[in-house]
Amino acid sequence: MNNQTQILQMIDICKSYPGVQALNKVNFDIQEGEIHALVGENGAGKSTLMKILAGAETLDSGEIRINGKKVVIDSPQRAQSLGISIIYQEFNLIPQLGAAENIFLGREPTRMGMVDFRAEKKKAREILDRLGIQFDVDLPVSQLSIAQQQMVEIAKALSVDARIIAMDEPSATLTLHELKSLFALIRTLKQQGISVIYISHRLEEIFEICDRLTILRDGEWIDTRPICDIDRDGIIERMVGRKITDEFPKQSFWPGNPILQVENLSRGFVKDVSFSIRGGEIVGLTGLIGAGRTELARVIFGADAPESGKIKFAGKPLHHHDPRKAIDLGICLLTEDRKGQGLILGMRIRENITLPKLSEFCRFFFIQGSKERQSSQKHMENLQIKAPSMETVVNNLSGGNQQKVVLAKWLLANSKLFIFDEPTRGIDVGAKREIYLLMNQLLERGAAILMISSELPEVLGMSDRILVMNRGCLVGELDRHEATQEKIMKLATTAPEKKLTVGI
Ligand SMILES: Nc1ncnc2c1ncn2[C@@H]1O[C@H](COP(=O)(O)OP(=O)(O)OP(=O)(O)O)[C@@H](O)[C@H]1O
Ligand SMILES: [Mg+2]
Question: What does pTM read for this prediction?
Fold first, then answer.
């Protein structure tokens, strides 16, 4: 990074919300063509810092300099004119429009007062070519994969000549293959002198792609240094403020009776799947995104009806196709889409946590306030949910803390089977460990866990057995002692030849 120009400096940035000092005298800088990681626990202030840079939030005090000159960023338009773009985890695309229309939305090229669609398409193609991306720019973006939609966002940033692109957890919803193309694209941006701010909770990605990193903790700046100057443990220690020795505190329990038995289950994409789980067991269900894992979970939970096959719960056949009954019986599904299915954003933390088991708190038709408060308080503490109080509206929490609320909500329900779909997505290392410890507690009280996850270290670290799905079929089962990343990837990527029946 010698002889490079510092294009952005953020100095002594402060920002507070009611009851929270989100940023306290934070310093951050980036050089031309640099890929700079921004890391920290959930609620550390990463997204807030980026929102201030992008003009989506205003700072309380501090200074921002671009190319050494002081600037005031008081609106997203101002940020854009200064060459700053941010890509949020929730994309800002109009699903019905094509990539070209989305890229130039509000800035359409015109000819004689009319939108010049030909010019628009040509320009869109030019930008995508520059990034080495190929897909139909007319196709509605709702028909593109998440990774392709992300590329449209990046193209949008380039179309306004962004020199600094902030990416807030861009990898969270990508498959391994898509992640490789994102990295290739980021490297292309770097070669073109564009600077990228990269936020992720997956430290291995940071080592692969970033030049430098800045660590925040509780709204404070902790460290900035070249990536070659620090190792994984060093980052974790600075992020969390203490050493974490065992990332995966797996405890083994003697397996009890079968809790879930799935026999020859088919529904849509899911074909002829059979497996079983006993009490005290965590079964990891992995495979590439789109392999059918979430579909399978929905059928077990009763959200979709099976086309054929049988499900037995605690030895009895399940005939219902109603999630309410599933909850009453003791089946929990923690969805991967926390905003869509798991949380009511406008409600308070306490209300969200007690939602699934409200009947337990209701006697004579009114809610017993103190009981409700006690249980949610306990879970807030266990999961270290960072918020001023239980009365905080969930919408105001950091992404990772929202995920913890979803978890707390289900842990309160005294269930026998927990289906966790990507339970630690967007969650920091320290809090992940807390979640694993809670899983141990659930197992100890005899529950069974089906853990759907794409994070192989987590699957390998926490599962007793690992099931691999590939294109709707179950293609393999591995014991925790024989499983390796390579074996799982091989099963997950080669075309399935035969179906597998396991553990019945
Ligand atoms: N609009 C808001 N109103 C109130 N508090 C807020 C608001 N936005 C953020 N906060 C608080 O500011 C703190 C920093 O949040 P921020 O979203 O920046 O964290 P983060 O580092 O991005 O975390 P994560 O890794 O979970 O995404 C948190 O305590 C959060 O609850
Ligand atoms: Mg965030």
Answer: 0.77
Residue of the nearest CA to atom 31 in ligand 1? 397
Cα 185–Cα 148–Cα 496 angle in degrees, nearest 5: 105
Cα 52 to middle of ligand 1, angstroms: 12
Shortest CA distance to 266 belongs to which of 313, 306, 318? 306
Q: Which atom of ligand 1 is nearest to the CA of 50?
A: 18
Domains parsed from the chain with CATH numbers: 6-240 (3.40.50.300), 246-330+415-504 (3.40.50.300), 346-413 (no CATH)
Taking residues 404-414, what's their average pLDDT? 75
Q: How far is the CA of 16 from the centre of ligand 1 (A)?
A: 10
Look at strands 362-363 and 366-367 and give their pairing. antiparallel
b/e for 33-46, b at 16 or more Cβ within 10 A? Answer: bbbbbbbbbbbbbb
Of how many residues is the chain composed?
A: 504
Please choose, from the candidates 238, 133, 251, the residue with its C-alpha nearest in 3D space to the C-alpha of residue 185.
133
Ligand 1 atom nearest to 428, measured from its CA: 25
Residue 471, CA distances (Å) to 84, 263, 274, 287, 357 in order = 40, 18, 15, 9, 35
Question: How many angstroms separate the CA atoms of 468 and 488, rounded?
Answer: 7
Residue 1 has a pLDDT of 43
Residue with CA nearest ligand 1 atom 25: 42
CA-to-CA distance for 69 and 78, rounded, in angstroms?
A: 15
In this structure, which ligand is nearest to the CA of 218?
1
136 pLDDT band (50/70/90 cuts)? confident
Q: Is the CB of 279 under 6 A from ligand 1?
A: no
What pLDDT score was predicted for residue 363? 42
CA gap 462, 458 in Å, rounded: 6
Strands (E), 444-489: 448-452, 465-470, 473-479
Helices 117-130/146-159 angle, 10° precision: 110
Contact between 473 and 272 (Cβ < 8 Å): yes
Residue type, 434: E
In whole angstroms, give the CA distance from residue 46 to residue 362: 39
Start-to-end C-alpha separation, the chain: 58
Q: Would you say the CB of residue 200 lies under 6 angstroms from ligand 1?
A: no
pLDDT(411) > 80:
no
Element (H, E) at 458: helix 456-462
Return the number of other C-beta atoms located less than 10 Å from residue 54's C-beta.
Answer: 22
Q: Kindly give the number of the ligand 1 atom that is closest to the alpha carbon of 18.
A: 4
- The distance of Cα 176 from the centroid of its chain, to the nearest Å, equals 14
Rounded to an integer, the average pLDDT of 379-399 is: 82
